[in-house]
Amino acid sequence: MATRTITLTVSEDVYAQIDALARMTSRSVEDFIEQSLTRSVSSLVDLDLPSLAQAELGAMEDLTNEALWAIVRSTANADRIALYDLLSERRDAGNITPEGERLLEHLSAEADALMLRVAHAYALLEARGQTLSTAAEPRSEQAASAERS
Fold first, then answer.
1. CB of 104 within 8 A of CB of 87?
2. Which pLDDT value is given to residue 42?
3. Contacting residues for 45 by C-beta, under 8 A, at least 6 apart
4. Measured distance between the N- and C-terminal CA atoms of the chain, rounded to whole angstroms
5. Which of 25, 21, 24 is nearest to 10 (CA)?
6. Distance CA 60, CA 45 (A)
7. What's the burial of 51, exposed, middle or buried (CB within 10 Å: 0-12/13-18/19+)?
8. HEC-encoded secondary structure of 75-99
9. Domain residue ranges in the chain
10. Confidence class of residue 86 from pLDDT cuts 50, 70 and 90?
11. Contacts of 127 (CB under 8 A, 6+ apart)
């Protein structure tokens, strides 16, 4: 399959979230982003999602821009990331219990769901004409108008 290389600029906060989620899923940042984008795009196009996830993403369309920006800025819980790292280390060492393995899978699914919500929020904001140059703060229409003047 042919591939293309793109350059994507994200805020330090977004990168830190992506890096943490990639570690949680034992992948490189590049692989995590590629897999997340692939899943997000194909899931939204094919609607090959569980009905609960489809409903959640569909409901996001009714959110205000401020609420979508809040989703974009949302982060994984630091304690859950630490737990994931610990369980991942135990799995790698061959010392994980079946319960630990189930919890690890659950934490990985949570990370994937967060990335899907963030990606969908970005897509909705872009479709609404929002400037996505930074995830740290939504740009007000007033600020955008002032820049155009």
1. yes
2. 56
3. none
4. 45
5. 21
6. 16
7. exposed
8. CCCHHHHHHHHHHHHHHHCCCCCHH
9. 12-143
10. very high
11. none
